[in-house]
Amino acid sequence: MTSALRVDDTSAVALTNSDLPSWLSHVSRLPAVIDGVKGLAWRFPSYENMLKTLGHADGMAEVMAIAIKDFIEEASQSGDPEKFLKERVHKYKIYVSEFDTVKIPIRAANLFVAGAYEQFEGYLYDVVEDYEELMGTAVRKRKEKEPPLDYVLDVLPGGLSKNKLRIWHERYLMLEYFRHVRNLFAHPRRGDKAVLRARDALLPLEPLLREQYRAAPPNPPDSLTIDDFLLFTRLIKYLATDLCRIMEPQDDMLVEHAVRQSLKPRSPLAGLPTAEKNIDKRLKKVAGYYRNRFRRTLPASIVHAISERLWLEKHGNLSKYPDGRVSR
């Protein structure tokens, strides 16, 4: 078996499928989250929003897939599919120019993937906004023709090469495949060479995918299924979990983050209680802000540090800080 790469290895971007043992044993590969969202120390707003919108998309796609199957089955059992369709056209007053029972579910699956990819891309840009807010600084702009996922992995801590391995390289390859599926769907005149190359890269991974994901490599665009769509959305959720972990801040960053947030007029941190009798309310408000926004319960020491720093920023000294223990 190939030995594991070093954590600081910068050649990861050039890995091929022959390096599969290295992917699986690489020290940068994040451990699986066993308890789902409960296993996350930080859940960013982009993550919460993505779960809601993508979960809704999953549900709607599944319902539509069932409706399509029922429609095709009824048409087949009618004995005269064309007559069956004409009756439905008349009933619902929807003009139909093409009726191909083989292509309908494939076309639907492509539509589902294209729609999910648009949500996915929007989520990636939301991730960047969350990270910029956390750090208090802007990251670089995305380069022309740079894949959005590559862009996000590159600007987050660790950089592109390391983060491909962190999020599990086989997942990266599958997400890239679905990007090409979407591109072919949106721009068919560009041809299918890119999407076929992306799928060819997945074929040697079939044993791994069947064992780890209970799935075969995604089908080609001309035979896509609802299962491919559901695999895609599952991968997006896996990625979102990993990006939350990659962005997880150090405690000392939170004090500076709180200072920046307190300068925003409508921020809950802008008007903390100042009277001595309200110190508990002050601390609860600080803790509540991070719990509500990031689903993170901060250690008491960090809550106190933030509270003291915000007092200092507003009053210039801590001589009257109302906690009964600071006198300066």
Distance between the termini: 62 Å
* Major sheet characteristics: none
In oligomeric terms, what are we looking at?
Answer: single chain
In the predicted model, the low-confidence regions spanning at least 5 consecutive residues are 1-15, 324-328
Strand pairing plus helix content: what structural class? mainly alpha
Give Rg in angstroms.
25 Å
As a percent range, the share of strand residues is under 5%
Describe the structure.
- The structure is a single chain.
- The chain is an all-alpha fold and 328 residues long.
- It is built from 13 helices and no strands.
- It has helices at residues 20-25, 45-77, 81-92, 103-135, 148-155, 159-166, 169-186, 193-200, 206-213, 226-246, 251-262, 279-294, 300-315.
- The radius of gyration is 25 Å and the shape is elongated.
- The N and C termini lie far apart (62 Å).
- Residues 1-15 and 324-328 have low confidence and may be disordered.
Task: Considering the chains and any ligands shown, give keywords for the structure.
single chain, mainly alpha, disordered C terminus
Gist of the model:
By secondary structure, the protein is mainly alpha-helical.
Strand and helix map with partners:
Layout: H1 20-25, H2 45-77, H3 81-92, H4 103-135, H5 148-155, H6 159-166, H7 169-186, H8 193-200, H9 206-213, H10 226-246, H11 251-262, H12 279-294, H13 300-315
